[in-house]
Design a protein that fits this description.
The complex is a heterodimer of chains A (644) and B (339). With 644 residues, chain A is mainly beta. Chain A has three helices and 49 strands. In chain A, the strands form nine sheets. In chain A, strands 28, 29, 30, 31, 32, 33, 34, 35, 36, 37 and 38 form an eleven-stranded antiparallel sheet that branches. In chain B, helix 2 runs antiparallel to helix 3. The chains are: A mainly beta (644), B alpha+beta (339).
Chain lengths: 644, 339
């Protein structure tokens, strides 16, 4: 074995300037046994631990170029100055120069040997486990093994000619369409424009309605919508449909958002590839990697530099959008979730999960800007968009929703009607409120069906039905409703309450019926609603764009190393011709089309093990299964690993 | 790894940078984090004005960790050869001030209460905190404050009255260290493509399944007798079937509002009806989740196959993070989390 280079410096062992060698042979790291003690029995070894003090054998360097020994000395000091903690590559080879292999190590010391016959140094090198988990040498050249699967169940042998198991990078590239699964997908960027974050907010990802009737007619979608699925950041989520098989189907999903203020481009951006995008504004709130939109173009980035306001690792025209030129000052919006709608799977049936109850508003007639309510809540169930009520004194006032009235007002069902009902008042000022709130802000509340009732006694004691908008938490009066002209008669109630005239954006609306007095028993009055349209503040509601239809390759493969029995599943919806890269050593999954991280796509099958799919020394038979698979090009790339 | 340490006066005006050997820097969810460092006893006089108690401090990292801002405060210990410096994260500014007395809030959401309490305190004298637009959602509450420490009020709002999160962020801007208080429905993001994996980017995990399990709560409100006192009964039938019925009660003598009592009961139930799985682990800045990729409040997958009866392969939320610069590692406190 001979030293070839250190951090690219061949002079370390070129015979002219220096000669270098390990002072003694390379052993194995000294492992520490992890033991579990037992009563009346020897401890059980539950595992081993790698040492923290493992070092490479001392590297001895003899300076041959004695005519320039000061220069050589300076080189050595510079090459082996480890103050920055950076691991550098040491390359060794067999004595004949073949079979080059490498290890990464940090230089810890460079010591001149006292009394040596020549000008000699000894270097201490600490190998870095970030590059190899077991301090092995790895071949400098990658071994590549390629294979094209044409049918599920095919196998291929991958040979590992190293001395220890190898950890491959597996690249899967579908090249022809698959016979099963979801055939189509659409990418849907959603901008959260409201300066307050929110958890589990219902969003219509069609942005106003998708013509599913046409898709059904074209044979691309099931008539009942069972094959409509929504994928958020690579994982399928609950979705609810409204108005399926119509020209304006709504698809609702819950999403959580943080507010991240948009920034602007510093300089113009052409349509071509760039290494970074610089913006004006604070990007510390942007995630470390993600997606932003400029105009209609989605741009994926893999990292960022906050204090330079730069996004780095740029993929232009991501997610099926088109790269375009942009002017300085163009707005740059964070896209917090990569949302895809999937469809075109005639075989699938959908069972609505019960883990998240569906929004309370009318799913078919509501949009992201207008929520239409025919019911208002559900007892003991938290429904997105639900109204609430507040009762100051429970014995004197109640919302209909808590049980309703039987004689005075025939209710369709609990929570189908929400209002305030008074009965048996005493000498108090009673109060109850019906409340709706939305983080995006409320512009108008349109009561299209409601009812009012007053008992005649009320005239003497005052009726006050007021509507409030809460701006920054403070109530402002937005309107009132006059006392019904006729007593003891159920009257229809329609009214539009405009909250845009308030001094600020209202995020909560309430109406409150106040009565005062000491009427007798049996007294009652009420105000209630059963159909309401709430227009939300459109500048703050989610900005949704449903992009055009893309072909989809629904990869759902199991890759098994039958030699070891290890297997992984790979589930990912991707484009034909693009590549999903699985790095077994680092445990990462990357969609190379946009360099996005897709760790959720790979799951280990079988017993726990540190690496998903290692290759043992010798031949490894790899088995690929995916029902209805198209042609999938598979590449195994790995570095053979050596003890020395 | 490098840390820039910027010091400002009590108003946040930047005075300069200092070099401190930091032993630990802690971020916590809904509470105050702490940073501890030591400085040599050399030329200490020049640091006197920089290290005054009450001064502001900002740590900026080059390894992807978010800026940490806080306030220098006691204790400060002097020992042979060095002295120790303590700083507390921006949430400490809430601990330094109280509400007024007879501050009566009716029908206020938790975000509104949080904002209003800080704004009221700023009206007396600036707390050092600006308030971001809070989450105004959730049920409304009736609350009276009488010289209540703002930190206690914030904790109460985010534990007893809601499941919201509060936190304080710090930034360097316009020659100032600025602090902004937030109350969000939930702090953080949910990550899919990254993970904490035992043996790869986490090590030394410890996992505790903690109790006590209480699945049937009686939350008792104000009143002069048991005939007028409202009692909110909340229970989790699934938990009762799994772990047997376990009662407990909570006396909330200052609360007369029924919906507020029910909120408190629901919060207590949510926090106690199942055993909490708390995990501490040491994270290193490696794939498949680097330090820059996740923050306190975020949730992400974790894979610890050796732990739990069937392995601990689930999603966790980061509740706290302690960065130890000497080791380049972060100790994480996480808990199991369902999306």
């Amino acid at each position: 074995m001979k030293i070839v280079s250190w951090d690219g410096h061949l002079e370390i062992n070129d015979g002219t300037n220096c000669e270098a060698l390990f002072k003694y042979s390379y052993g194995l790291p000294t492992l520490e046994a992890l033991t579990s003690e037992r009563h009346n029995a020897a401890p059980v070894i539950s595992g081993v631990k790698f040492p923290t003090d493992h070092m490479l054998p001392p590297l001895q360097i003899q300076v041959n170029n004695t005519a320039n020994q000061d220069t050589i000395r300076r080189w050595l000091h510079q090459w082996f100055d480890g103050k920055d903690g950076r691991a550098r590559v040491l390359i060794i080879a067999d004595d004949d120069g073949s079979n080059q292999r490498q290890i990464y190590a940090v230089p810890l010391s460079l010591i001149q040997i006292e009394g040596g016959a020549a000008y000699q140094f000894v270097v201490s090198l600490k190998p870095d486990g970030a590059y190899d988990p077991h301090y092995r040498f790895q071949s400098t050249a990658e071994t590549g093994e390629e294979w094209t699967v044409t049918a599920s169940g095919q196998t291929h042998i991958v040979a590992n000619e190293g001395e220890d198991e190898a950890y491959p990078v597996i690249r899967l590239t579908p090249t022809t369409a698959k016979a099963t699964g979801y055939t189509y997908r659409r990418w849907i960027p959603i901008k959260w424009r409201n300066p307050v974050g929110v958890a589990q907010y219902p969003v219509d990802i069609t942005g106003g309605g998708l013509n599913t009737a046409a898709l059904v007619t074209a044979g691309k979608m099931q008539a009942d919508g069972d094959d409509i699925m929504v994928q958020v950041n690579g994982s399928l989520v609950n979705r609810w449909l409204g108005g399926m098989n119509t020209t304006a189907t709504k698809i609702w999903i819950p999403l959580s958002f943080q507010y991240v203020a948009p920034v602007t481009l510093v300089t113009s951006l052409g349509a071509g590839a760039v290494s970074y995008v610089e913006v004006s504004g604070d990007i510390s709130g942007f995630p470390s990697s993600g997606i932003f939109m400029i105009g209609t173009e989605a741009i994926q980035y893999t990292s960022k530099v906050d204090n330079k306001s730069q996004f780095v690792g740029i993929t232009r025209g991501a997610h099926g959008t088109t790269a375009a030129s942009h002017s300085p000052g163009a707005q740059v919006d964070l896209i917090q979730h990569s949302v895809y709608m999937l469809y075109g799977n005639s075989a699938v049936t959908y069972t609505q999960p019960t883990s998240t109850p569906q929004p309370i508003f009318n799913l078919a007639s509501s949009t992201n800007q207008v929520w239409v309510f025919n019911e208002f809540g559900e007892n003991a169930v938290s429904r997105m968009g639900a109204w609430s009520y507040y009762i100051a004194l429970t014995q004197y006032a109640r919302a209909y929703s808590v049980g309703g009235l039987s004689g005075e007002k025939g209710l369709v069902g609990v929570w189908d009607y929400l209002g305030i009902n008074y009965f048996s008042m005493s000498n108090v000022v009673s109060a109850a409120d019906v409340i709706f709130e939305n983080v995006c802000g409320i512009d108008t509340v349109n009561i299209t069906a409601g009812e009012l009732y007053r008992a005649d006694e009320v005239e003497s004691w005052g009726w006050e039905l007021k509507h409030y908008g809460f701006v920054d938490g403070v109530a402002q009066t937005a309107g009132s409703t006059a006392m019904p002209a006729s007593a003891n008669t159920l009257l229809g109630w329609t009214q539009t309450i405009n909250l845009t005239s308030l001094s600020g954006l209202a995020t909560r609306y309430s109406f409150a019926l106040r009565l005062r007095g000491t009427p007798g028993s049996g007294f009652y009055s009420f105000a209630g609603v059963n159909t309401v349209s709430v227009t939300l503040h459109s500048a703050n509601t989610p900005g949704v764009t449903m992009n055009g239809e893309l072909s989809n390759y629904p990869l759902a493969a199991t890759v098994t190393n039958t030699t070891t029995g290890d297997a992984i599943t790979v589930s990912f919806n991707m484009a034909i011709g693009q590549t999903l890269e699985i790095d077994v050593l680092n445990g990462t999954v990357t969609y190379l089309a946009d360099s996005s991280r897709q760790g959720q796509a790979v799951r280990r099958q079988g017993s726990a093990r540190p690496f998903w799919l290692p290759l043992v020394v010798g031949g490894n038979t790899i088995h690929f299964s995916d029902l209805g698979t198209g042609n999938v090009h598979i590449e195994f790339a790995f570095r053979e690993r050596y003890y020395v | 790894m490098a840390i820039n340490i910027v010091v400002g006066d009590a108003a946040g005006i930047i005075l300069g940078e200092i070099r401190v050997f930091m032993e630990q820097i802690v971020w916590r969810s809904n509470d105050v984090g702490q940073a501890v460092g030591v400085m040599p006893l050399v030329d200490v006089a020049r640091y006197q004005s920089l290290l005054r108690f009450g001064n502001t401090i900002l740590f900026q990292f080059d390894n992807g960790l978010p800026d940490w801002g806080g306030v220098l405060d006691t204790p400060r210990s002097w020992q042979a050869g060095h002295f120790q410096v303590n700083a507390y994260s921006g949430e400490h500014l809430l601990r330094l001030r109280t509400t007024g007395h007879n501050d009566v809030y009716r029908q206020y959401s938790v975000g509104d209460l949080f904002r209003s309490a800080i704004v009221a305190a700023n009206g007396v004298e600036f707390t050092g905190l600006n308030v971001a637009v809070p989450w105004y959602g959730g049920n409304v509450h009736d609350v009276d404050y009488h010289y209540k420490p703002l930190l206690d009020a914030a904790k109460e709002l985010t534990t007893d009255l809601s499941s919201a999160d509060f936190y304080v962020t710090a930034e360097e801007s316009g020659g100032l260290i600025r602090f902004t208080a937030h109350l969000d429905a939930r702090r953080g993001r949910d990550h899919q493509g990254i993970a904490l994996v035992d043996g790869r980017n986490i090590t030394d995990p410890t996992m505790d399944e903690q109790g006590p399990i209480v699945n049937h709560w009686f939350t008792v409100g104000a009143g002069s007798s048991w005939y007028t006192r409202y009692v909110a009964e909340t229970f989790d039938a699934v938990s009762e079937n799994l772990y047997r019925r376990r009662d407990d009660s909570s006396i909330e003598s200052r609360v007369s509002n029924s919906s507020m009592l029910e909120d408190i009961g629901e919060q207590k139930l949510a926090a106690s009806s199942t055993p909490a799985t708390a995990v501490t682990l040491r994270a290193i800045d490696q794939e498949p989740a680097r330090f820059a990729d996740y923050d306190v409040g975020d949730s992400l997958p974790v894979d610890i196959p050796r732990y739990g009866f069937e392995g601990f392969t689930t999603r966790v939320r980061v509740l706290g993070r302690e960065f130890v610069p000497s080791g380049g590692t972060c100790t994480l406190l996480v808990e199991e989390y369902n999306l």
